[in-house]
Amino acid sequence: MNSPLNTMVFGQQYLTIEDILSVVFKKNRVSLSTDAGFQKRIDTGITFLDKLLAEDGVIYGVTTGYGDSCTVGIPPHLANELPIHLMRFHGCGLGQYFSEDVGRAILATRLCSLTQGYSGVSWELLNQIVDFINKDIVPVIPEEGSVGASGDLTPLSYLAATLCGERQVYYKGETVDAITAIQAENLQPLTLRPKEGLAIMNGTAVMTGLAITAFKRAEYLSKLCSRITSFSSLALKGNSHHFDEILFSVKPHPGQQKVASWIRNDLNHYEHPRNSQRLQDRYSIRCAPHIIGALQDTLPWLRGLIENELNSANDNPIIDGIGEHVLHGGHFYGGHIALAMDTLKNCVANLADLMDRQMALLMDVKFNNGLPPNLSAASKERSYINHGFKAVQIGVSAWTAEALKLTMPASVFSRSTECHNQDKVSMGTIAARDCIRILELTEQVAAALTLASWQGVKLRIQQNELAEGTLTQELQSMLNDVQSFFPILAEDRPLEHELRNMVNNIQQQRWPLYE
To answer: What is the pLDDT confidence band of residue 1, given thresholds at 50, 70 and 90?
Structure first.
């Protein structure tokens, strides 16, 4: 729960996807719990590790080297330098850089894991992450370089480094050296304790942070795709009986039933049941609840996987300070997130494919039941030289094809690496990055089809084939809102900027759908 001060408390409760997103989008500040049990887990973890170091105990990554070098003992006088070397030699990420929003998701996700109280980290480290979030100091993290087992070592090294004043951060709209932002906020660079480099880096925060943002985008896309199907059905003079409540009662997938009810209510089926000249519409209309419903029915399961990973201690070794145990395992392995993202990206790509087919029906006079070619609203004498959405449909096909190409599961492409110590890896971060890209492409398809199906409905109204007064308030409201920034396409014009604006509206979730 959020306090009246809109502060998200870490270390006190099981956090949800929405809790993390409230931090990502700056709706909430963060703080550490004052719960006695939480504070005891942190305090005893630090005390226990100090005791082991004083007694020359063997602790992986503290008194030994990392990975395949775990058999190499570290002289006590070098133990304090070891986490700095771990942080620095992993500074080899490449590719594009994650956005500020994703960076905030990674910060909040790592904080959630470390505040489970089983990582042996100090209050100084936890407070530094809290300060970074609250003061909006966001690590600049390269996207590429993680195989998703031993966690997101390379990308998370950038988080560790920035806490210590090294590398770069996003700060006040600029990319600056981390030490510059730290000094501007009157903070001090963190000095890593012996296990803290490993605690920050040896976990699944990057893939999980990506999964959190992907989940919410996919959830919205499923609703938007349902709304677009309603517009497309109206524009095509579709048969509203395809979404009948009795029909869907006999195939009781709850998500599928929910999508059918959304479309049925959009079409105002009970007051104005619509029958097309065709007994059965083509599959991209008739089967839309089954296609979108597959994603809807998958979302609760995906939520469970993502939120369990979010609320887990997923570094190695696990430090049980209260029971005085050092537990060596593999909780850094990102298999659950890899599975979640490979599943989600296939469900989302299916939405792109569905919308690509709906677009084709709207454009083609052989299938669109009397709409003009390419949905052009040009007058008859100007119709010869105007082309409507012709090129946009080509774009839709290109974006869809690229989305479908990326659906190959990343999780099956394990590689043996790091001298065969990491001989089976999850590829969870690559799966999550694939999923984000497929979401981007599908949002582009949705942007195009929103405008095209909107135009189709407006053309029916202009042709007196659809009475605007028979539409639900929700559909009328969205039609009017789109019209406020997208004039009907009568004369050809470049649509790039209008499409980009629509993509932004979708990513900002402009329309409250089916609340």
So the answer is: very low
Domain co-membership, 112 together with 197: yes
Q: Please write the tens of the pLDDT for every residue from 79-92.
A: 778 889 889 999 99
Q: Quick check: is 14 catalytic?
A: no
Q: What single letter denotes the amino acid at residue 345? A: K
Asked whether 321 and 120 are in contact (CB, 8 A), the reply is: yes
Query: Which of 60, 118, 158, 220 does the annotation list as catalytic?
Result: 60
Looking at the structure of the chain, the number of domains it has is 2
503 within domain boundaries: yes
Residues with Cβ < 8 Å from 411, sequence gap 6 or more?
A: 335, 338, 339, 342, 426, 427, 428, 431
Q: Are residues 380 and 445 in the same domain?
A: yes
Per DSSP, the residues of 308-322 read: HHHTS--SSSEEETT
For 68, the 3-state DSSP assignment is helix
Helix 335-363 vs helix 288-310: crossing angle, to nearest 10: 160
Q: Which whole number is the average pLDDT over 96-125? A: 97
Per-residue pLDDT band for 466 (boundaries 50, 70, 90) equals very high
Q: Cα(481)–Cα(253) distance, rounded to whole angstroms?
A: 33
Q: Is residue 91 in some structural domain?
A: yes
- 197 and 224 in a single domain? The answer is no
